[in-house]
């Protein structure tokens, strides 16, 4: 049976750069539309970033929060998945440029290229204070944290031992808070029975924040609760203290110098190079300033979504860089493309804030649903169920549930592995 | 309550180098003996090597087959676990030398230092034909295999595309057979629906063996069955064909040149440097030639066990380099130490061969129990149950069972991740 097909050249070509939450949602929402889609990513996997800190703290395995992009698109014959590195856009000729010289022609382009951690003029801090954005970042942090305990176990000098057992997290947004709470749990519960020469429960976890409070995006009372909860886990919280120096020895903040062998950067991100590719207006963090329909000024055929853009929400504050915001934008871009193909338009993008969640250690969380605020164990249950719900596929849901069950019931963490790219041992 | 303790200096000190199957079993079997134990490994984890090929082929996650050594010894107060690199033994002063200058005094030393893959005078082949002994080896192979498919998807030149879709495994022992079968399954079932420009089912998997048959350690009829089964999976089996060249282009074997971008070495191992440390007699593969009580000639206080030794079994043939053999030797060494502490001795070590197993693709296996030989699906079930039984802990058993269920029911593999040490994309 053959049916009349429209000639290939007339199919509207959509290129989506980046298969994070925004790009993937856009691809999903274009199902059934008369378009051909090319989904490009320099990784072969979609990453569930909200749980990346759990890989860094040995709680989850890498494969529990990552899915091959190709696999997610396997039933969509009109979607071509490319494992490739984009390094530019030619908006005149309407082509995406790949670093191997290939180009991808588009009729509509979606830039969903995300963000990396940023050091705001202090890139020299990166080797001492690595950040957390990719699976490799997470396994690197995991290695550093676990190796610090191993080296402390063999260290005889008390000062060096204390520096090895001091963990500094810079930045007290959700990632910083979640890292600090989980490292405290790791030291207190998971590792304590396993060491002989050190008492891992005496490890110091120090959370340093330049602003006046932790979880600045949450209401004051939830911030205060989060800080008190962290302190009850043994985390030392230092707010209003900008870090002025990171080195192999430790950090300097305010008038304090803290010797620490492990420093983690959770203090800020900068957007991808998308604004440079288009020579388009961007804010200080390189986020593209998009129009109310999420297109780039002067380029109605280029949408930019997710962490790589800045746009005001209905309350006038910037839309936060979180997964639900990126997904809403991906959905809006897909709907706009469909409307345009039918000769229509859509009202401007309007962000709906569903809520903010952060886990504090293994049994507590805070949730801000706007009118409803939750905290404590009940919030943790909602946090846990929500995260399992948003994972993709039954297998990973079962697997993560299993991993969490073991953490809660046995204090065992699934992935206490020191690994690296080479076969050499890191010391 | 205080009880009289024997003075610390009189406790018999056992140092175990290597926490593989042999070293770990020895530590377990010394429980309750009046000894203090130091267990040294340059990894922080014990690895279940029999399933390592499943990590290399994206079927299992790294953490499903690895456990922190420290965690396995957590309830044994007399055991100190050290994450350190041994680089020598001073048998005169009875000390193990670490690469950071520290030394570990021993009364009895257990060398359970294992083996690495070996190229028999062709070390220059290693970059082109990596082997499989560590978790990093496995994630490196996984990356190479998955990247080959990704690059083939984008390759327009037919010859280069064919070379990218040709996978050569050198050596048809259990590891080679298991890799070949699993890569064939991966190409045929798991990946086929996900690619658009290539038909992954046309990937060539070529298993090359210098000897006259696959699975040389098994009886003739099971070898023949294994070869026929591999061929029915589409694997091209070439026996009696020594490889004479490995390069970035491919392999040369006999009079044949085969263009291939992915070559895997499963053709042989050499022992650790333990024989060099002691300047003790060893065979061609550097395996220590131990006495019938598993001690090193001239060193009654040094046992050597597992893949790093060679010793004849009751049938006169060498004891095979498999997990049950290493465990039996670890058990024997522990029993001998206990007997000696009581002033006794033990009869010489006697290897009991329980059986040989190998999986062929995802639904078949061969098992040689001596009098009973099994093959096909029933053998696969026994293979699967035995492997899950020998995993450590309920959590990993459930997790591996879940992963295998998904492979069988859905052809989904848990860990199709391209990752590496650096954050750069490999092409």
Description:
- The structure is a homodimer of 427-residue chains.
- In chain A, 30% of the residues lie in helices and 24% in strands.
- Chain A has eleven helices and 25 strands.
- Chain A has helices spanning 21-29, 52-56, 69-72, 135-154, 158-164, 174-190, 220-232, 274-278, 323-341, 377-390, 394-410, and strands spanning 12-17, 35-41, 45-47, 66-68, 79-83, 86-90, 95-98, 103-105, 108-111, 115-117, 166-170, 204-208, 235-238, 243-246, 250-253, 256-259, 262-265, 269-271, 288-289, 295-296, 299-304, 309-310, 356-360, 364-368, 373-376.
- In chain A, the strands form eight sheets. The first copy, chain A, has a six-stranded mixed β-sheet, with helices on one face.
- In chain A, α1 packs parallel to α9 (323-341) and α4 runs antiparallel to α5.
- The first copy, chain A, is globular, with a radius of gyration of 23 Å.
- In chain A, 52% of the residues are buried.
- The interface between A and B is large, with 60 and 60 residues.
Overview features:
six-stranded mixed sheet; disordered C terminus; 24% strand; disordered N terminus; alpha/beta; homodimer; 427 residues; four-stranded parallel sheet
Measured by DSSP, the beta-strand proportion of chain A falls in 15-25%
Distance between the termini of chain A: 65 Å
Give the beta-strand count of chain A.
25
**Average pLDDT of chain A:** 93
């Amino acid at each position: 049976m053959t049916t009349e097909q429209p000639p290939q050249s007339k199919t509207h070509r959509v290129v989506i750069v980046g298969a994070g939450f925004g790009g993937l949602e856009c691809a999903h929402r274009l199902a059934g539309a008369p378009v051909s889609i090319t989904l490009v990513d320099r990784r072969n996997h979609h990453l569930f970033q909200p749980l990346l800190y759990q890989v860094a703290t040995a709680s989850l395995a890498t494969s529990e929060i990552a899915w091959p992009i190709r696999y997610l698109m396997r039933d969509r014959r009109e979607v071509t998945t490319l494992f490739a590195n984009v390094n530019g856009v030619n908006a005149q000729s309407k082509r995406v440029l790949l670093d191997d010289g290939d180009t991808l022609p588009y009729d509509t382009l979606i830039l969903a290229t995300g963000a990396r951690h940023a050091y705001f003029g202090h890139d020299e801090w990166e080797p001492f204070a690595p950040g957390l954005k990719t699976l490799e970042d997470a396994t690197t942090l995991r290695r550093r944290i676990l190796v610090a305990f191993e080296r402390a176990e063999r260290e005889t000098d008390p000062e060096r031992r204390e520096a090895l057992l001091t963990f500094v997290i810079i930045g007290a947004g959700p990632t910083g808070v979640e890292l600090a709470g989980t490292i405290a749990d790791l030291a207190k519960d998971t590792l304590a029975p396993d060491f002989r020469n050190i008492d891992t429960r005496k490890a110091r976890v120090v959370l340093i924040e330049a602003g006046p409070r932790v979880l600045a995006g949450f209401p004051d009372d939830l911030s205060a609760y989060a800080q008190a909860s962290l302190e009850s886990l043994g985390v030392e919280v230092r707010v209003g203290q900008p870090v002025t120096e990171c080195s192999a020895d430790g950090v300097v903040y305010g008038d304090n110098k803290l010797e620490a062998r492990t420093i983690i950067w959770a203090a800020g991100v900068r957007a991808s190079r998308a604004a440079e590719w288009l020579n388009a207006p961007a804010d200080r963090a390189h986020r593209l300033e998009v129009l109310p329909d999420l297109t780039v000024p002067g380029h109605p055929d280029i949408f930019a979504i997710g962490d790589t853009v800045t746009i005001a929400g209905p309350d006038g504050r910037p839309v936060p860089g979180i997964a639900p915001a990126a997904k809403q934008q991906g959905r809006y871009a897909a709907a706009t493309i469909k409307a345009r193909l039918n000769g229509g338009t859509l009202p401007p993008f309007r962000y709906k804030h569903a809520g903010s969640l952060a886990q504090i250690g293994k049994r507590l969380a805070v949730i801000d649903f706007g009118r409803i605020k939750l905290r404590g164990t009940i919030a943790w249950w909602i946090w846990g169920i929500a995260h399992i719900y948003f994972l993709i596929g039954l297998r990973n849901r079962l697997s993560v549930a299993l991993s969490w069950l073991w953490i809660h019931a046995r204090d065992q963490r699934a992935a206490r592995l020191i690994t690296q790219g080479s076969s050499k041992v890191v010391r």
